[in-house]
TrEMBL record:
Coiled coil: none
E.C. numbers: 6.1.1.15
Stretches for region Disordered: 33-52
Xref: Gene3D superfamilies: Anticodon-binding domain, Bira Bifunctional Protein, Domain 2
Keyword terms of this UniProt record: Aminoacyl-tRNA synthetase, ATP-binding, Ligase, Mitochondrion, Nucleotide-binding, Protein biosynthesis, Transit peptide
Subcellular localization: Mitochondrion matrix
Name assigned to this protein: Probable proline--tRNA ligase, mitochondrial
Summary of the function given for this chain in its UniProt record: Mitochondrial aminoacyl-tRNA synthetase that catalyzes the specific attachment of the proline amino acid (aa) to the homologous transfer RNA (tRNA), further participating in protein synthesis. The reaction occurs in a two steps: proline is first activated by ATP to form Pro-AMP and then transferred to the acceptor end of tRNA(Pro).
GO cellular component terms listed in the entry, alphabetical order: mitochondrial matrix
Organism whose genome encodes this protein: Triplophysa rosa (Cave loach)
Length: 481
C-alpha cells in the first residue's frame, strides 16, 4: 500500500483519484485476507466399468464332446474349448483377451521376484545378427531349430531363440563398467522362436512363445555362483506363490553351454522329460545326466532312484566366461585393471508355465488356475430373465460394480455374466469350466430384507450363503497381483 501511495505522488496523480483508487484497493485487500476460496475437492478416481461376459471376445475353438487327433493333452483342449487361445499355424497361437489377462499377471509376478533380487528389465531385438552367433560358434551348432533369414542386402539374421550373444555384446560395449556395479542382472520377457519339427501339446511345445530370460555378470566365480543360487531361490518362491508342485533337477547344459545347470520341472504324466528322484534325500536329476540304468542315489549313496515325468518350466545355467571371453565383456576390477566377467543365464517359459499350471491343477472338464493369475477372481451371476427373481438383476449389477471398485484387491477383477437368456445352471457350468475362483449367485434370497448371496469357492467346491458384509469380508482377503 505504501509503495502504491508513493507511486501516486511521484506521478502527480489527482488527489481524489489516488484516494479513491487506494480505498478500493484497500477494501479488496481486506476482502482477500478475510474471505478464503472454497476448498478444491481432489479429483475422484474413475469408476472401472464391470466387464460383461456377453462382451468378451472368447470364441470356443472346440465343440463340446469333440475329439481331435491333435488334442493330445488336457491344457490344450481346455484352452481351446474356453477360448483362451486360437490356432494360427503349427506351433503358433493367438492369445485371446482372457488368456492375456492371466499372462500379464504372471509377468507382473515374475517382475516382482526378479526386481527383488536386483534384476533390471530390458528389451532386446528379436532380429539377431548372424555375425554374433558365428563369433560364439553357435550359428551352425543350433541346427535346424533356428529360424534364419536374409535382408535385401543379403545380410544374415536369425529370429532369437535365446539372447546370450546379444546381451554379452551389449555389456562388452560398455568397457568401463566398474566392479562396484556388479553383480548386474538384466532380463527381458519377450517372444522367442524355435523351428520345432513336431510342435504339440498346445503352448507346451510351440514354435513361437514367451520367455523370461535373465543374464548375470559378476566379478568372480564365487560371486557368480552366489547369484546363481539367488536366482534359483527366486524361481522356487515364484512357483510356491503359484501353488505349484515343483522340483529342481540336475540338468545337461546342452547348446547353451557352461559347467552347471538345473531344470525346474512340474511332475506330470504328459511331461516329455524323464526324471530320477531319490525319496531318501530329495536328489533329482534329468535322466540325460545319469548313467544308463542307474538306480542308486549318488548323493546319499543309500536311496533308490524312482523315475517320473515332468514338464520343464525353467532352466538355469552357470556360463563362466564362455561368452564373455569371446566378446571381451570386461569390467574394471578393484585394482583398476580390466577383467573378464563371469556370467550366468536363467530362463522361464512364460507361456509354458501358463499352460503347465492348467495341465497339472485342472480336472478333465474344468480349469483350475493358480489363484494369483486367474483372469478374473469373481464372477457374479444375475437371475435368468423372466424368472421370479428377475428383480435382483439390478442388485447383481450394483454388487459387481461395488466389489470391482470399492475393494482395492479386486479392482477390475469382477466379471458379470449378463447372459440372462441362459439358466443359472448353464452359466454355473461355464463358470466352472473357466475356473473363476469365486462365483456369486444372486437369486431370490437377495431380495429379502437382509440380502443373502450364494457363494461358490471353486477350488474347494465349498458353497456358502453370506450377507453382503460377509461377502465383502471374504473377498477382501483374496490375494491378487
Amino acid at each position: 500500500m505504501d509503495v502504491l501511495m508513493r507511486h501516486c505522488k511521484t506521478h502527480k496523480l489527482p488527489t481524489i483519484l489516488s484516494r479513491t483508487f487506494l480505498k478500493a484497493l484497500k477494501r479488496s485487500h481486506i476482502n482477500c485476507a478475510t474471505h478464503t476460496s472454497p476448498p478444491v475437492s481432489p479429483p475422484s478416481k474413475p469408476t472401472i466399468p464391470t466387464p460383461r461376459v456377453s462382451r468378451l471376445f472368447q470364441p470356443s475353438n472346440l465343440r463340446e464332446g469333440q475329439e481331435g487327433g491333435e488334442l493330445t493333452c488336457r491344457s490344450q483342449r481346455l484352452m481351446l474349448q474356453t477360448g483362451l487361445i486360437h490356432p494360427s499355424n503349427p506351433g503358433c497361437f493367438y492369445y485371446l483377451p482372457v488368456a492375456l489377462r492371466s499372462m500379464e499377471k504372471l509377468v507382473r509376478l515374475i517382475d516382482e521376484e526378479m526386481h527383488a533380487i536386483g534384476g533390471q528389465k530390458v528389451d532386446m531385438p528379436a532380429l539377431c545378427s548372424a555375425k554374433l552367433w558365428k563369433t560364439s560358434g553357435r550359428w551352425e551348432l543350433m541346427g535346424k531349430e533356428m529360424f534364419r533369414l536374409q535382408d535385401r542386402h543379403n545380410a544374415e539374421y536369425c529370429l532369437g531363440p535365446t539372447h546370450e550373444e546379444a546381451i554379452t555384446e551389449l555389456f562388452a560395449s560398455q568397457s568401463t563398467v566398474s566392479y562396484k556395479k556388479l553383480p548386474l542382472l538384466l532380463y527381458q520377457v519377450t517372444r522367442k522362436f524355435r523351428d520345432e519339427q513336431k510342435p504339440k501339446f498346445g503352448l507346451l511345445r510351440g514354435r513361437e512363445f514367451y520367455m523370461k530370460d535373465m543374464y548375470s555378470f559378476d566379478i568372480s566365480e564365487v560371486a557368480a555362483l552366489d547369484t546363481y543360487q539367488s536366482v534359483c531361490r527366486a524361481y522356487g518362491r515364484l512357483f510356491d506363490r503359484l501353488g505349484l508342485n515343483w522340483v529342481q533337477v540336475q540338468a545337461d547344459t546342452g547348446n547353451i553351454g557352461g559347467t552347471l545347470s538345473h531344470e525346474f520341472q512340474l511332475p506330470a504324466d504328459i511331461g516329455e522329460d524323464r526324471l530320477l528322484v531319490c525319496q531318501n534325500c530329495g536328489f533329482s536329476a534329468n535322466v540325460e545326466t545319469m548313467e544308463p540304468g542307474q538306480t542308486h542315489c549318488s548323493q546319499c549313496q543309500t536311496g533308490v532312484l524312482s523315475e517320473t515325468r515332468g514338464i520343464e518350466v525353467g532352466h538355469t545355467f552357470y556360463l563362466g566366461t564362455k561368452y564373455s571371453q569371446v566378446f571381451k565383456a570386461l569390467f574394471v576390477n578393484a585394482s583398476n585393471e580390466p577383467s573378464v566377467a563371469e556370467m550366468g543365464c536363467f530362463g522361464l517359459g512364460v507361456t509354458r508355465i501358463l499352460a503347465a499350471s492348467i495341465e497339472v491343477l485342472s480336472s478333465v472338464d474344468a480349469i483350475c488356475w493358480p489363484g494369483l493369475i486367474a483372469p478374473f477372481q469373481v464372477c457374479v451371476l444375475p437371475p435368468k430373465k423372466g424368472s421370479k427373481a428377475q428383480e435382483a438383476t439390478r442388485i447383481s449389477e450394483d454388487l459387481a460394480q461395488s466389489l470391482g471398485n470399492s475393494l482395492a484387491n479386486l479392482k477390475g477383477e469382477v466379471v458379470l455374466d449378463d447372459r440372462t437368456q441362459m439358466t443359472i445352471g448353464k452359466r454355473l457350468k461355464d463358470a466352472k469350466i473357466l475356473g473363476y475362483p469365486y462365483v456369486v449367485v444372486v437369486g431370490q434370497k437377495a431380495l429379502e430384507d437382509l440380502p443373502i448371496f450364494e457363494v461358490l469357492r471353486q477350488r474347494s467346491g465349498e458353497t456358502m450363503f453370506l450377507s453382503k458384509e460377509g461377502l465383502v469380508d471374504l473377498l477382501s482377503r483374496v490375494e491378487t497381483i
